[in-house]
Structure formats: structure tokens, C-alpha cells
Amino acid sequence: MNDKIAAPQSELPGAELDTALLRPDFLWGVSTSSYQIEGAAHEDGRGLSIWDVFCRQKGRIANGDTGDIACDHYHRYAEDIALMRDMGVRAYRFSTAWPRLLPRGRGAANEQGFAFYDRLIDRLLEARIEPWLCLYHWDLPQSLDDLGGWTNRDIAGWFADYAALVAQRYGDRVKHFATFNEPSVSTLFGYALGWNAPGIADKSSYYKAAHHLNLAHGAAVDAIRDLRPSALIGAIHNRQPVLPESGKPENAHAAALLDAHWNLLFPEPQSFAAYPALIAHEMEPSQKAGDMARICRRLDWFGVNHYSPIYARADAASQLGFAWGKPPASAQQTGAGWSIHPDAFRDVLIAAWRRYGLPIYVTENGSGGNDAPDATGAIADKARIDYLRAYTHAMGEAIRAGADIRGYFVWSLLDNFEWGAGFTNRFGLVHVDFKTLRRTPKASARWYAGLIRPTRKD
Ligand code: FCB
């Protein structure tokens, strides 16, 4: 997701969420991921991930940026937890870096890596913030990529072994585990389009990777449940309506195809043991008897990441039959050029609730741009506040329509390494000066604290 930064515009209606709609235990949180914030890429025994390698390939990342230092959260986690506590958030979703815990992806564990997440979790609990742990936010150990990565069927077992170590170590303090963050992005962008690590553009690798990731999901759910029967396990999916780019009628079929890849390829087999009809035949060569039952395991919650609708157009030359389309010129956009459409968010939440029937947590929502401090050092990110106000209001409408939504996590706590866009696309409630690593809460952090405050019982 590395769209160019466009001029911010924002004139959204200003209705606030009616917090009376929320459950008394509604969970307000913030989200991050390991490679995007931790830094310390070569410290304390961490192994290389596919993103360390990808960032070093010429032309992959804006300005040649890398996550080597990122927000230096590895050393500054206590300051970051204090920022969350000051905002009043009750939950923090982070990911563990597989290569920090198992530098070669399997085999010897790295105790220094495990000790880092012990410190993080203990400090969160002291601040009365619930840790939500995601096992995979795209930073695959490079040593496993050398063996074929997600295209190697053995990865289901490697991932389950890693999940078991994490559940064993942290399951006494962490209740909520997610297997994967946005598997459609890591596979489609990583193996079919070549935009994300490991940078492969090959249809057959992509279908293998998708099937093996689904197997890994099922195997990890079983591994966690065996060790920690009371753990609450979910998966995190990006759910975005796919609309045809205006123009040709064949764009409607392209949109249906992209919808199958983007919205259905993972949650459908994970919940109903079936691949979406439009691409089921492509998945067959990777399947073995019993696989669909291995993938479809009971889950406790459903994570929705959502930012905007996406657009598709027909493209006969592309391997998959569609290409990324453009939003209509009239669409209102964030500073990152993503279209703003709060009603789509409301509809996505209602549809996910109806289809999957699990308690829903919004695990990511937020607005990117290029906010900079003014002459006084303040960051008046009005466009982000307008976006968050409109989107939380839309979430309230979904709750009013009956959707069982139990929490909402802003992406993101901090400005961070935004994949292909490097440090040019800022999503934080807290500004990070990437030269000094100084943190400064933006106006949106104060706005979010004000939204949360009346809903806290303590
Ligand atoms: C999501 C990713 C997250 C971040 C946001 C802006 O697709 O899960 O890491 O990049 O987009």
C-alpha cells in the first residue's frame, strides 16, 4: 500500500459517536507491528527477516528507507506505553517478530528476544493495558524464505511450532492471540504482484503461499488451544468493498475477482472450509485430502482492518485478470490518497458480523498523511481527527444495526515504517521525528483520549 501522498482535504460531517451504544466493556486500543516500529534489527540475536532483505533491494522502498531503527521501540517501549496510558487506551495490539524469537525460523530459540516481549507485556499489564498479540505481521524469517517461505508446505508446521513457543511463554499473561494480520496483503502483494517482501510476481507461488498460510493458521490455532485452552484466538483480515473503476463494463468482473482474492480467500476457508468459487480451481493443485478441515478451526473473534474501498479494472495482460484501479476523481481522500467513505466501513462491519457470526474487533483503522509540526512544534492533524470521528461514528451505526462490535484499535500509535512508502506516510496519533526519535502527541491523540475518557469506568 504505497500510494503517493496527495494534498490533504477534509470536510467530513462532524457527528460524534454516541458512546451510549457501546458495550460497558468496549475496548479502545491502538495497534502497531514489529517490523514497523521495533528497530534493533541487528541486536540481541535477532535473525534477518524478508523485510530486512527486501528493503536493501534498489527501488523497493521510498527513499531507500529501512526498518533498521524505525521508532526504536525495542529500547523505548516504556516511553511508548506511558504515551498509551496517558491516552487512556485499554488495549495494545502488537506483533511478535518471528526472527527475533527464532532467528532461523525454527530450531534454536533466542532468549534475549523472548525476554524483550516479557518486558513489554509486564509493563503493559502494570499500566493496565491488555496485550493483544499477533503472531505474524509479515516479517518472515529470511532463513525460511531460503527454503521457499510460504510456498513450502512444511511452513504450516514451522509456524505452529513458533505459535506454541509464544503461547507457552506468554499465555499466562496474554489472553488474546491473532494468527495472521492481513494474509491477503502479505500473499497477494508478496507473491503475485511483487510489491511487498519477498517481491515475487508469480501466480503459482501465490496460490501455494495462500493455501499454506491457511494451513498454518489452522495448525497454529490447534497448537495454542492445546497449550492454553482459555486463550481467545482470532485472525485479522482487511475487509474492503471492491468497486469497479468507472468506465468499462468488464471492470465489474475484475472487481468480483479482486474481492475473492482480497476479502474471501482467507476468512472463507477458515470459517466455512471452502475456497471462494471464483478461484477454487486455482487452489486445487496445492490441496491434499483433509486440508480444508485442518484450516477451518473454531475461532473466538474476528478482526477487521479497514481504511477505504478499493478499485479494480480488467487487465487481460495481468496474471490474475485484474489490476488495481483508481478511485473516482471526485472521491474525497486522506493525505495518503486513500478514499474516504465512512458508510463503506459501516457496511463492512455489518456484513462481517452477519457472515462470520463472531464478535468483531476493529483491529486497524486510521488515516495517513504527511503531518509535520508547525512553528510551535504542535501537530494539528485536523484531517485525521475528522476521519476518525466520521469512522467511529459509522462504527456506532453498525452497532445500532445489530453488529456485535467489541473493540476498536487505531492504526497507529506512532508514525512508523510504512512498508513501500518508507517513512513518508504517517499514520500515528503520536508524531515521531525520525532523526531524533522524539515522540510528540498530535492533536488527534488528545481527541482520542477525549473520546475514550467518558467510557472508562475506573
Ligand atoms: C495495513 C497494515 C499495517 C499498515 C496499515 C496502514 O494494511 O496491516 O501494517 O501498513 O495498513
Describe the model.
The protein is 38% helix and 14% strand. The protein is α/β, with parallel strands linked by helices. It has a single domain, classed as TIM Barrel, CATH 3.20.20.80. The chain has an eight-stranded parallel barrel, surrounded by six helices. Strand 8 and strand 9 form a beta hairpin. Helix 3 runs parallel beside helix 5 (111-126), helix 7 packs parallel to helix 9 (203-227) and helix 8 (183-192) packs antiparallel against helix 9. The protein is globular and about 60 Å long. The structure holds beta-D-fucopyranose. Beta-D-fucopyranose (FCB) binds next to loops.
Secondary structure: elements and pairs:
Blueprint: E1 27-31, H1 34-37, H2 50-55, H3 73-87, E2 91-95, H4 98-101, H5 111-126, E3 130-136, H6 142-145, H7 155-170, E4 176-181, H8 183-192, H9 203-227, E5 232-238, E6 242-244, H10 251-264, H11 267-272, H12 280-283, H13 291-295, E7 301-305, E8 310-314, E9 322-324, H14 342-356, E10 360-364, H15 382-400, E11 405-411, E12 430-432, E13 439-441, H16 443-452
Parallel strand pairs: 1-2, 1-11, 2-3, 3-4, 4-5, 5-7, 6-8, 7-10, 10-11
Antiparallel strand pairs: 8-9, 12-13
Helix pairs in contact: 3-5, 7-9, 8-9, 14-15
The structure holds beta-D-fucopyranose (FCB).
Residues 1, 33, 36, 181-182, 185, 238, 305, 364, 411, 418-419, 427 line the site of beta-D-fucopyranose.
